[in-house]
């Protein structure tokens, strides 16, 4: 569900008279999953996923961006180190700002709140361009906002569904 929806928002094929079109439908996606079907995972799983992407980049695979439509947990030096390694490898780390209506300047939301040059923190806006009621924000900690309310995208089994969240804004 969640990952399929995000992947569709990024790269669903266009100009084929089917469903939706991704924001970059010529992009290639390498799915790296560390969350289970319930959206639960560990910080160690996230670290290993990022380290895997960095290793692939260093081996010659052209990885440019990691979409991180996830968040939770407190500060982790290991996660920060992995994101810094991605930065050193030239990989942009786009992260969901969070869905708890919090000011990330005051209450950091990780991984979006790490101060590393490659981290791009994304809030959600509605169809009128207003901050979504659930979206985290922060004048210093959130970099931009993108559509994140009632986003239609792909779902498992060839269907389509509408979801809301900063996870839906992040792939834009």
From TrEMBL:
Question: Which GO MF terms are attached to this record?
Answer: serine-type endopeptidase activity
Q: Which residues form a coiled coil?
A: none
What GO biological process terms are annotated to this protein in UniProt? proteolysis
InterPro entries registered for this protein in UniProt:
Peptidase_S8/S53_dom, Peptidase_S8/S53_dom_sf, Peptidase_S8/S53_subtilisin, Peptidase_S8_His-AS, PfSUB1-like_cat_dom
Q: A Pfam family in this protein?
A: Peptidase_S8
Signal peptide feature range: none
The Peptidase S8/S53 domain is annotated at 1-172
Q: Which family does it belong to?
A: Belongs to the peptidase S8 family.
Identification of the protein by name: Subtilase
Report the source organism: uncultured microorganism
